[in-house]
Amino acid sequence: MASSVDVHVGRRIRLLRGLRKFSQEKLAKALGITFQQVQKYERGTNRIGAGRLYEMAKILGVPVGFFFDELDSFTLPLEVGLQEEQAPFQKGEASKTSDVSLKAKEGSEIELLMMPETLELAKAYYSIKDERHRQKLLDFIRDIARSP
């Protein structure tokens, strides 16, 4: 049965596939699977095995840990029923993540990154050569976002 981690990994696959401008068909062909299987991975309805995730990371040009970024921490049950805190895959403070907070985080940051206009906005922003103009634009956007 798929879990919230599977959904998170699927969203990271979809994000990266979009950034690399790979269709589901192109990624599927490179992996030797059907595009429907890629869809199931991206939705988190099917779990992706370690070997397949490794191959996907090679094809998309990222370390395997990329798929687990933004998972602040995770726990593994020990045989005695206790839980051991594990180090996160990214830099920064580790904090406990419940399924609810994971879903809220995925529903905001990752979904925003997957929107076509996000990439277009980032490209346009970084095409501005003058750093002062970029900073003024960023300040302007933040001001607008804060206003009712």
From TrEMBL:
Signal peptide: none
Domain spans labelled HTH cro/C1-type: 13-67
PROSITE patterns named in the record: HTH_CROC1 (PS50943)
SUPFAM superfamilies: lambda repressor-like DNA-binding domains
UniProt-listed InterPro entries: Cro/C1-type_HTH, Lambda_DNA-bd_dom_sf, TransReg_Diox_bact_type
Keyword Transmembrane part of the UniProt annotation: no
Keywords associated with the record: DNA-binding
CDD domains named in the record: HTH_XRE
Pfam families xrefs: HTH_3
PANTHER family: HTH-TYPE TRANSCRIPTIONAL REGULATOR, METHYLPHOSPHONATE SYNTHASE
Name assigned to this protein: Helix-turn-helix transcriptional regulator
Species, as recorded: Bombella saccharophila
